[in-house]
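Friendly challenge for the regulars: who can give me the structure tokens for this chain first? No prize, just bragging rights.
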Amino acid sequence: MNITNLNIEFFRSINDFGKQHPYLNPPLVFIAEYMVYLLCAVVVIYWFTRIDNYRMMVMSALFAFVLAEVIGKAAGKLHSNNQPFAELPDVNQLIEKAVDNSFPSDHTILFFTFCSSFWLFGKRLGSFWVILAFCVGVSRIWAGVHYPADILAGAIIGFISAYIAYLLVTRLRFAKKILAFYLKYENKIMPQSAKSKNF
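First reply, four minutes later:
Bragging rights claimed.
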């Protein structure tokens, strides 16, 4: 069995599960479509805790996401495939989506970039986020909009980008200067009595 057939076989095994157990479709669709809003809310909450370590984590995650998007676009130039619902018959498509290149998965890149960054900065709570990123990836296959290879590529790109950003951002004086500059003006607008935790 070649890689293409294996990719389709794995896709079918996950996507067909939704046909056999349709009661699981609504929560999986919610994860696939709307969990991104939870991630955005969490990023905002982390930032406004006014804890320097969390803010450095958010800065690292944002840098990682930009890097991951660049790598993802380059990967999409090297290989392309449309969504499974556009290429295969009898797909259990649960999400409306325009037909375009689905390799690698942008959703998976986003989640694995941010969630891997959370894990690198705090492995105990971060493990929850990595599991959530995995669930989002699986849900995109379940919903019929991505192949497993799209998800795997997105996860690898997201994690590698997060790790590179973690190594760079936590060591660059420039990143700390940006944070210090921001804090200077934030404290003028919203003074705080307690000191924030230094990174």
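The CA atoms of residues 1 and 9 lie 10 Å apart. Residues 193-199 have pLDDT under 50 and may be disordered. Your move, everyone else.
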